[in-house]
Amino acid sequence: MAKPTARRRINAFDMLLDYEQRSLAHVVGRPEMIEAPGHWRGVGFRLGQRRLVSSFDEIMEILSLPPITPVPGAQPWMLGVANVRGTLLPVVDLKQFLEGERTLVHEGQRVLLVRQGGGNVAVLIDEMFGQRTFNDTHRTELSGENEGRYGHFVDRAYRLGDTSWGVFSMSVLTRTPEFRQAAL
User: Which of 28, 131, 138, 176 is the most exposed place for a label (fewest CB within 10 A)?
Assistant: First the structure.
């Protein structure tokens, strides 16, 4: 069996070096980091009959519903606290907070982990739809997405096909005094 010549080793090394240099020179952004004028992306979910979407900037993580320990003396919409990777998080039933109606818990239930001043909060939703991307041509007039208590949190809407998506501001929610005061 013939030994590789020094010439082949140099070529192989040079080839790997060339691959590295070209790889470092060609940095491709992840799709969620590419900013396109007029595009907006968020996480779609359902509360009651409303389909809503919140900005990726406001949702830190999407989790399965963790085991919850009730907190005595809390508002009915404050379900309790959950231990998520060693951190205690308050868990809020968002539909009950907004509509007064309890969310029916089922297997596969999801919570949205939202940043708020003083720590994070887990927000229970009815159903998760995942990522939604909109552009300026999808913008539409609000048609009920901001009725009742939703009016404080939904300021615009987008339409994809037959579905209207209200843009729900989690940052406004977490700054709302009533939301921040879960004690009775």
Answer: 28
- Spatial separation of the C-alpha atoms in residues 17 and 6, rounded to whole Å: 16
Residue-wise pLDDT for 12-52, tens only, equals: 777 777 777 766 665 444 454 455 678 899 999 999 999 99
Q: Which residue has the tokens 């004690």?
A: 183
Rounded CA-CA distance 126/93 in Å is: 9
Q: Could you give all domains of the chain from N- to C-terminal order, each with its CATH number?
A: 40-180 (2.40.50.180)
DSSP string, 5-53: PHHHHHHHHHHHHHHHHHHHH-PPPPGGG---TTEEEEEEEEETTEEEE
Could you give the CA distance from residue 159 to residue 152 in angstroms, rounded to a whole number?
20
User: Which CA distances in Å does 89 have to 17, 129, 167, 180?
Assistant: 48, 23, 24, 13
CA distances from 114 to 49, 67, 96, 161 (A): 22, 18, 17, 28
Which among 107, 83, 82, 105 has a CA at the least distance from the CA of 94?
A: 105
As a whole number of angstroms, the distance between CA 89 and CA 83 comes to: 6
Determine the Cα–Cα distance for residues 82 and 90; give it in Å rounded to an integer. Answer: 7
